[in-house]
Amino acid sequence: MSKVALITLHTVSNYGSCLQTFATQKLFESLGWEVEVIDYYRADNLPEYAVEKAFMGRRMQKFQGIWDRAPWLKRLLSIPMGAIVKRQRKPFDNFRRKYLNLSKRMYRSADELELDPPVADVYCTGSDQVWNSVWNNGFEKPFYLTFAPEGKPRIAFAASIGRNEVDDWEKPLMKEALSQYKAISMRESSGIEILNDLGFNDAQLVLDPTLMLNRHEWEKIGRMPEGIDGPYLLVYQLNKSKSFVDYVEAVAKQYGLNVVKISYGIYDVMKSAKTLIAPSVEEFVGLFLNASYVITDSFHATAYSLNFGIPFTAIAPERFSTRIASVLALTGTEDRMLNSQQDIAMYERQIDFEYAAEKLDEMRKKSVAFLEEAL
C-alpha cells in the first residue's frame, strides 16, 4: 500500500482543526492510501509553552504590567492557569490519540523535519489555514513541504490562506516553495485568485475535508452530551463580540428558543444559554447533528450546518471570513450571512438544502477527481 505523509494544523486546540485532519485522513484511506499525520508543532504551539501562551492571550493582556512588577504572582497563578489549559486541551488530545494516525516522532521544529523527515511515497499539505502567515506568525516552511526528500511528489489538498491577499514580503517565498508542488488545490476561491496572481494557474478549488464526508459518516463518531433535551439553538462563537451575543439573545427571545453554547473556557460563558465548556470532539459533532438551528462565526460550523441540513445564520468575523463567503457562494446560500443585527426574521427564512446538497455532491466528485489525479 502506498503511503502519504500529511502535514496540517492538527495540533491546534480547535474543533475544526482536529476534524478537518480526521476527514482528510479518512478521504485518503478511502482511496486506498496509508496515511501518516506528521506530528509537527509550531514553536508557539508546543505543549510546554501552553501556560505561558495563555498568559499572553488577548484576555490577559491588560494584566501584563502586573506580571512585570510582580513575577511571583504570575508564578503562583501558573498553577490554576495550568489546570485550565489542561482542561481546554484534553478533548483535542484525546481525539488525536484515538483517531489520528500520528507519526511516531513528534517534530518540534523545521530543522528536525529537515534532518529526519518521515518516509512516504507522497507528501501532502492538508487543509486549514496552513498558508496564513498571520495565523502562523510568519512563513512556516514545514507547511510548504520544504522537508520533503528530493524527487518525492508534493501536493496540497484544500489548503487555505484565509485572507484576500498576501503581503509582498511573502510572495517570493511562496512562489519558490509552491513551484516544487506537483498539484495544488485550495478550499476557497480567494486562495485560487492569490495563486493565479503568483503564476500558479493550475490550482483547483476543492471542498474542505469536513464536507467530503457526508452526514452518515459523521454520525459514526458523533454523540450527544448528557443533559441536552429537546430542540435547541446551537451557538458556536470564536470571536468575542457583544453584538453577536445580543443577536443570539434577540433571536432566542423572539422565537422562545433554548440556547446551547459551545465554549472553550469559563471566560466564555453566556448567561442566557446552557454553556458546555470544552465538550469532547465527538460531542461537538453530535451537537451539530441534532441542532434545530445554528448561529456561528465559524467556517467549520457553517460547513457542518450545510452538510447536515441544519438551518443557520453565519456572522462574518472581523478577519479571515473569506472561507465562509466561499462556501456560501458555492451552495447558493449567500443570504445566510448576516448583514443587519435587526434581521431577526432570518430564522424564519427557508434554505434550499436540496440545491446545496447537489452542489456539495458535485464538488465532492471534482475534489476526489483532483486527488486521484494528483496521487
Structural features:
12 strands, Rossmann fold, 14 helices, 5-stranded parallel beta sheet, 7-stranded parallel beta sheet, 375 residues, alpha/beta
Notes on the structure:
This protein is an alpha/beta fold and 375 residues long. The protein folds into two domains: 167 residues, Rossmann fold (3-Layer(aba) Sandwich), CATH 3.40.50; 139 residues, Glycogen Phosphorylase B (Rossmann fold, 3-Layer(aba) Sandwich), CATH 3.40.50. It is built from 14 helices and twelve strands. It has a seven-stranded parallel sheet with strand order 3-2-1-4-5-6-7. A five-stranded parallel sheet has the order 10-9-8-11-12, covered by helices on one side. The longest helix is centred in the N-terminal third of the chain and has 29 residues. The protein is globular, with a radius of gyration of 21 Å. The two termini are 13 Å apart. The mean pLDDT is 89.
